[in-house]
Amino acid sequence: MSGPSAASARPVSAGRARADAEATATATASGFPVDAHVHLHPQHPLSEVLGGAVRHLRLAASPASGGEGAAGGLLLAEVGGVDVFEDLRSGRRNLEREGGWSVEPTAEAISLVLRGAGGERLVLVRGRQIVTAESLEVLALFAAVTPPDGLPLREAVDLVRESGALAVIPWGFGKWWGARGRLVRELIRAREPGALFLGDNGCRPRIGARPPLFEHARRRGVRILPGSDPLPLPGHERRAGSYGFIVERTIDLQSPAQPLQASIREPRAALRRYGRRRSLTGFVRDQIAMQSLKRSVARP
User: Fold this and answer.
1) What is the pTM of this model?
2) Exposed/middle/buried for residue 220 (C-beta within 10 Å: 0-12, 13-18, 19+)
3) Domain 22-298 maps to which CATH number in 3.30.70.360, 3.20.20.140, 3.90.1170.50, 3.30.565.10?
4) Would you state the pLDDT for residue 62?
């Protein structure tokens, strides 16, 4: 299995080396918070998404912290037809004109460090969301390349894993019921720990029973990765970074994806959950709005 792809590193000045060391130390002192399910929707201004993410991540790491260290990381799950990560990496998109952010390349092809006008830093890691033949979702996190949509779930999971990425099946309202729930359960039983992950979802309501598949996964040693999962709805442009986990590990901002992925794969590495999921009112409002949006898109 291959790890994250690497690109040639740029020379680093002494001043920048000191800044990178300070950023790493700040992240390590309070833990490094990570949101493991982030969509960048075209209707959401990217500067607002990033600003909201920094606020959430800094609160997660330490309510009293400020400073200029890396606030945390966003693991992207971009949908078909959207590739904001590549637009930023290639320079096709100029973030400075959109809100004062700049892009700092890393030594990895699948990660970027974004710097805000105030010196705040945010790690962005490439990844995609795949929709399977069963209308389930698979997140390919830390992915340089991903399978196409429309494959059977088992095949999609295996191809993501073979590429060196993390295969995550995220919770979705109604998607783990009936035959599809049984299929996910069979995958959990058949895959060894580290070959498959489940995803908790910041849009899941705070009240109500915990999905039974989470307990089944826990017993089988399958890790559950929390993430915010912003929807293409008004107000969700400020949700990235609001739900996730904290890695107790030094994160080198020249190569941030490698230690993050290693921590997730390591069963003994602690991943502390942070943040709150949606209220019942917010959850119901989101579901109604999403159904209305789907009808409007399907309307000729």
Assistant:
1) 0.86
2) middle
3) 3.20.20.140
4) 57
